[in-house]
Amino acid sequence: MSYVRCQRCGRPTCPECQRQAAVGVHCVDCVAEAARAVPSTRTALGGVRHDGRPVVTLTLIGLCVVSFVLQLVLPSWTGRWLFSPILGFYEPWRFLTAAFLHSPGQYLHIVFNMVALWFVGPTLENTLGRARYITLYLVSAIGGSVGSVLLATATGSWATTSVGASGAVFGLFGAILVVSKRLGGDVRGILVLIGINLALGFVMANIAWQAHVGGLVTGGLLAAAYAYAPASRRRLVAVAAPVTLCAVLLVATLLTYGSVGAFD
């Protein structure tokens, strides 16, 4: 039986539940209540600042790595989730799932994307907040696939399959450019980074540059809505902007499919 009482609530607390405070000992319930009462710190763009590891970025990297391992051990895993404009018409979930796949025979593919994600992801996660950041990533991934559909006729790539987080990563590139500009930072290095990576898509084989362009534009637009929203309307914009952008992407995709008689 414990004879130590919490200095805050007065209830007895066992040795395992005692937490040393500035004055006396507190129980775990009072410590948790006090932590909830502490006002959250927000960034310049209204995101809730979280101390510690960038859990969303680490989770995204973890999902890609797990999926890559499954690609290596399950031959059918890649074919089940990869994207092509034709496959996307019949199985729309592929617009997103392909972003968690990478080329099984090219280890540098996943290494490059994960390094790029780690390079820009934590900054955006901290600046925008976790909810807006994960929304930005997922919508950019979809935007990358939409870019492949919109440019499929011009490039003759309706049946060309693609995998990779590049569309989403380029969305983060576009977002970090917009956010840095909004906060008064020097964006020259970011512009060079985007320019080099875009150019590689046009000069190297087997790179879905269409997804890069689609992700870049999508991420930049959504980040602009987040970054330039009035402080009083940030919560509204955090919901309305991705919904509106997804609606635009959907309409553009359906019109493109309709233009080639996909609904006939």
What does this structure look like?
With 264 residues, the protein is mostly helical. The chain is built from twelve helices and two strands, in the order ββαααααααααααα. A two-stranded antiparallel ribbon has the order 1-2. Helix 2 (55-73) packs across helix 3, helix 2 (55-73) runs antiparallel to helix 6 and helix 7 runs parallel beside helix 12 (234-259).
Key structural traits:
single chain, 264 residues, mainly alpha, two-stranded antiparallel ribbon
Main sheet characteristics: 2 strands, antiparallel
Runs in which pLDDT lies below 50 for 5 or more consecutive residues are none
State the helical fraction.
55-70%
Percent in strands:
under 5%
Order of helices and strands: EEHHHHHHHHHHHH
Radius of gyration, Cα only, in angstroms? 23 Å
Calculate the terminal CA-CA distance, rounded to whole Å.
Answer: 78 Å
Mean pLDDT: 90
The overall strand count is: 2
Question: Looking across the biggest beta sheet, what order are the strands in?
Answer: 1-2
State the shape: elongated
Concise summary:
The chain is an all-alpha fold and 264 residues long.
Summarize the helices and strands and which ones pair or pack.
Blueprint: E1 18-20, E2 25-27, H1 28-37, H2 55-73, H3 75-81, H4 85-90, H5 94-97, H6 107-128, H7 130-150, H8 152-155, H9 166-182, H10 188-203, H11 209-228, H12 234-259
Antiparallel strand pairs: 1-2
